[in-house]
Amino acid sequence: MPGLIEICDSVMELWQHRRSELLKNADSVIGAIENYENSENKSNDYDIKSLIENAYKSLSKNFDSESGGFGSSPKFPSFQNLIFLMQYYKKYHDENALNMVEKTLRNMRLGGIYDQIGGGFHRYSTDSIWRIPHFEKMAYDQALAISAYSFAYSLTKRDLYKNTVDEIFNFVKSDMFNGAFLTAIDADSENEEGKYYLWDYTELKNLVDEDFMKTVDVLPQGNFYDAYSRPTGKISFTFHRI
Question: What does the alpha-carbon distance between residue 145 and residue 128 come to, in Å, rounded to a whole number?
Answer without folding.
Answer: 19
